[in-house]
Amino acid sequence: MKIEGKEWRTIWLREDGCSIGVIDQRRLPHVFCSSIIYSFEEACNAIQSMAVRGAPLIGVTGAYGLMLALQKDPSNVSLENAYKILLSSRPTAVNLAWALARVRNCVAKLPLEIRAEAAKKEAQQIAEEDVLMCKAIGDYGYLILKEIFHKSSIKESGRQLNILTHCNAGWLATVDWGTALAPIYKAHRSGMKVHVWVDETRPRNQGASLTSYELGCEGVPHTVVVDNAGGHLMQHGLVDVVIVGSDRTTRQGDVCNKIGTYLKAIAAYENKIPFYVALPSSTIDWSIADGIKEIPIEIRSESEILQINGKLNDGDIASVNLCPLNTKGFNPAFDVTPAKFISGLITERGISSASESGLMELYRK
Ligand code: MRU
Predict the structure, then answer these.
(1) pLDDT grade, residue 217 (50/70/90)?
(2) 2-128 is classed in which CATH architecture?
(3) Catalytically annotated residue among 176, 247, 254, 285
(4) What is the pTM of this model?
């Protein structure tokens, strides 16, 4: 996607072939800057500190992290050590485990001297596939938006299609295009009148900081709302469709995504508003069925709740306290939306019901 006229991806292999460039998302929307990752430890730190975030992007970062470890030391000990440490950097998004397993499986039986090169090719391949999957999700999701736009005669009334999204499942969360936002970009580029309600997404404000930034760069009309506004907007006919991303989708179609997604799904269900989840196949965990029982939910630091980051009038970026000192916070980063609340899954292979049979139909091969 473009930022001030220049094409960017969120992550790239640098020309030297042994370091990785990433957009540092901790400083957006106030400062746009990239940083360089030279080692698997730094890759791990970038994932943990959320310099890079979003399920597909942490998968690709993990894959490059393993490559960096093998460039330094291609032994089995080094491979297993880096694999284990990277895997534990964030527990919920399955893309990380998926990408790490791909690189590990690809190199495990190779002679030591060609492992790093093979890992590089595999990581690059994972990154390229992510772009293609997100593009395809954009095309399929656009068909849904078009259908809703025409069916509910929004077009004739001359008004915009109102889409609500939660967190950031745009290109910043992937290598390019995004998942939930890709259909919106396609619709906007095709000339459809769209408007996006952006949930601020406390505590880290991925919606307020990142989704609004992305949509602004692309010129998509949008409005940030507090997380609790969604139900009210839906009751008053101000939301035509909800699209969110996913960090892990089980084979029965339960979706784990940013904390607060579940409440949006219930509100959409109650108000008969379609609720779609956009995800690449790298987000599907075929090994589990029941998302509530089986998906590990990351618990992050209470400081993310007790403090908030922002830009001061003098231009400095600062963190300020929100609560009385010594207040306790509890910060589960994700929740699970049961399949019954989901109208459909938008994948790179097409649209399916949120069910085992629906997913199997798309992914049997
Ligand atoms: O904690 P984050 O910012 O990594 O959480 C991101 C999300 O919850 C996204 O919705 C999800 O990863 C899908 S991204 C295409």
Answers:
(1) very high
(2) Up-down Bundle (1.20)
(3) 247
(4) 0.97
